[in-house]
Design goal:
Strand order of the largest sheet: 1-2
Helix content: 55-70%
Largest sheet: 2 strands, antiparallel
Number of helices: 20
Number of strands: 2
Distance between the termini: 56 Å
Strand content: under 5%
Length: 445
């Protein structure tokens, strides 16, 4: 048997393993049979088989190819070009998020307790990590982390000829596993507040709310450090790091939302719209959410300093509204469920307040830019096609203009897919040598 035929057989085998894992996962909803095999049997048979299948598929799909980014047939695939498979996948993922976020309400409306079986399946792991039983958020964290890790390996293999992409992929995998999953669970095990060290205000606005600060301070020395950490990262480290590295230090290297977008969302990055209409909507929406977070934080603090004498309970109503519509519906249901249709950075592009404030820093005074060697551009359009933020990179290259855009997350894929080496991500000696007229950066798109 030739190597090509052997690889095809192994690819089929890995898909079979993935399907078997999915089948076992589904079986746990309708049957208690797997639980009779032992407490670890359901999670190992379902998630284990899916993970092994996904890893095998990634290996045999990319490992034996010549190094270099392969996007063959992307525009013709039903999964990657908004076909029937993409819409079906979008409905399934969206349905899962609706079930996750509104589970209690749906059960009250008569929907079967579908998540209870999956939650029970992860009980052994929850006991090991935080000493208690699983719940829907532990289930979500486990699925989320598993997706980032397994599909992160796919990224490592697909981009194995590009050192920047490999290090960046390892970074998001590390931060999601350690800081997004293990550390919060272990904190609960030692009777400390659950805390996510990689989320700051304004993405995690409650970390600067007075009630949350009081809760952390009351928990002891570690809680004091958490307050110190979140305050310093939000007010000092964010602008400083953005000055030196642009928003990529966070959006493409640390953030859990970005981590999922860069791994699970990578096959859909070409679906981000590059139209001017999308760009206008993006500007208005993302900055509107940032303004809402600022106003909400101010209202909460005013109510704390002047209890019930200024806004009464209205500020807490706004907080609940924000948590439901922005925190749940936008960032979760739409932000991930619409990957196959609108691209991998729906939330990051249109709603994330952290991305908005980082974008203001990046556009105004950051040393980061993408330099352009326009004389080498052949107008192939790969850069614009695979920009997950919908930036018309080719237009900048054709005009021989360096790219300084508030929406750019510095993923570097535009430079990686360029066949002529036209684009380069770099940090200058200061923000003033990024482009002509940089003394007036806010006038630049």
């Amino acid at each position: 048997m030739s190597r090509t035929s052997s690889n095809r057989v192994l690819l089929v085998g890995s898909k079979v393993l993935t399907l078997l894992g999915t089948a076992f996962l589904s079986v746990t909803i309708f049957s208690d049979v797997l639980f009779t095999l032992g407490p670890w049997a359901p999670v190992l048979l379902s998630c284990g088989l899916m993970s092994v299948g996904g890893l095998f598929w990634s290996y045999f799909a990319y490992a034996h190819q010549t190094p270099g980014i392969k996007n063959n047939n992307v525009m013709f695939g039903s999964t990657t070009n908004r076909g029937v498979v993409a819409w079906t996948l979008g409905v399934i993922v969206t349905g899962f998020y609706v079930l996750l976020y509104f589970y209690d309400s749906l059960k009250g409306m008569g929907v079967p307790p579908l998540l209870d079986y999956w939650i029970q399946m992860f009980d052994p792991l929850a006991v090991v990590l935080h000493g208690g039983s699983s719940d829907r958020w532990f289930l979500y964290g486990a699925f989320y982390t598993l997706a980032v890790l397994v599909l992160g390996v796919r990224m490592l293999l697909k981009y194995r000829g590009n050192r920047y992409q490999q290090i960046r992929s390892l970074s998001v995998m590390f931060f999601q596993l350690g800081f997004g999953f293990l550390i919060p669970a272990l904190l609960k095990r030692i009777q400390q507040p659950e805390f996510y060290f990689t989320y700051f205000w304004p993405l995690k606005p409650e970390y600067l709310f007075p009630s949350e600060i009081s809760r952390l301070l009351d928990s002891g020395g570690l809680g004091v450090f958490m307050v110190f950490w979140s305050t310093v990262m939000a007010l000092i480290a964010t602008p400083v790091l953005s000055y030196y590295f642009g928003k990529r230090w966070y959006c493409s290297w640390v953030c859990g939302c970005g981590g999922l977008a860069e791994t699970a969302g990578d096959p859909f990055r070409q679906n981000a719209s590059t139209s001017e209409t999308a760009w206008v909507i993006e500007r208005w929406m993302i900055h509107a959410v940032l303004v809402l977070v600022v106003v909400l934080t101010a209202l909460i603090w005013i109510n704390e300093l002047y209890p019930a004498s200024v806004f009464g309970s209205w500020s807490y109503t706004v907080r609940e509204w924000y948590g439901f519509y922005i925190g749940a519906v936008f960032s979760g249901v739409v932000g991930v469920g619409f990957y196959p249709i609108l691209g991998s950075r729906v939330w990051c592009r249109f709603g994330c307040p952290m991305a908005a404030i980082l974008g203001i820093f990046q556009r105004s005074f950051s040393r980061f830019r993408i330099t352009v060697n326009g004389g080498q551009c052949i107008s192939c359009g790969n850069c614009s096609t695979y920009c997950e933020m919908g930036i018309d990179v080719r237009g900048y290259a054709q005009r021989e203009e360096n790219i300084v855009r508030s929406s750019c997350v510095g993923c570097g894929v535009c430079a990686a897919v360029c066949p002529r080496g036209v684009l380069k991500l770099e940090n200058g000696s200061s923000h003033r040598d990024r482009f002509v007229g940089s003394s007036r950066p806010l006038s630049v798109l």
